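Justification of resources, computational component.

The compute hours requested in this renewal are based largely on the per-chain cost of generating structure records like the one below. Each record pairs the submitted sequence with a full structure-token output. That output is archived, and it is also reused by downstream analysis tasks.
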Amino acid sequence: MVSLVLDHVGVTLARRAVVSDVSATFSPGTLTAIVGPNGAGKSTLARAMLALVPATGRVLVDGVHAAAMPRAELARRIAYVPQGQLLHWPLTVERLVGLGRLPHLAPMSRIADTDVAAIERAMARADVLDLRNRIATELSGGERARVLFARALAVEAPALIADEPLASLDPGHQIDVMDMLQAEAANGALVIAVLHDLTLAARYCDRLLLIDEGRIVADGAPATVLTAERLRAVYGIDARVETGGDWPTITTFGRALG
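The structure output for this chain reads:
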């Protein structure tokens, strides 16, 4: 179990306020999507949660300021799937997934049986056991996404942050990734994903955090956050939001006029 609290968090990059006065509390067993238009500050907010960018206010992980926490300790508590990650080294899938155990290893130490078991569990949960001997740089986009997800799972952290994990994936593989994120939350993990696809966010997520120009515009269940009026104000689009099914569905008609 882990707790994550944002207390009036702000981030300024290149003298521009990218995130402003964001406060939120995230709980285990939930899948939360951070959504909003391009440039809204979604990825910067995710990075602030991991103390990867300087921030004002406080990011508290189990009551401890994340910026003051040793990096290895923070990495053991929150696993991270960064966006657009390129693979440069011809490692096997098994070795790449094994890199997720680094936060648990002392310098120059070898992996132990417990690490091997964690790697096996991660590959099984991400459904990449059959890829273990493949060279990671030769994988398809969908296979690569599952392998990078497995690397994060190998940390066996109680929380997971995924930054745009659906980017460049076809619809089928997007569903695969969302299924994995949902399963982790169902197993008790605190899961946060930066997403652009509002329909998938509404279908899979327990909670949406909608931000625009670095500030929270709405925070709550998908059906309450995603309204036609709010989509017009935040995204500048005309859309119809239907809430009669199991989750809201969104039909867009074009840019809002006037």
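The chain is about 30% helix and 30% strand. The chain has a mean pLDDT of 94.
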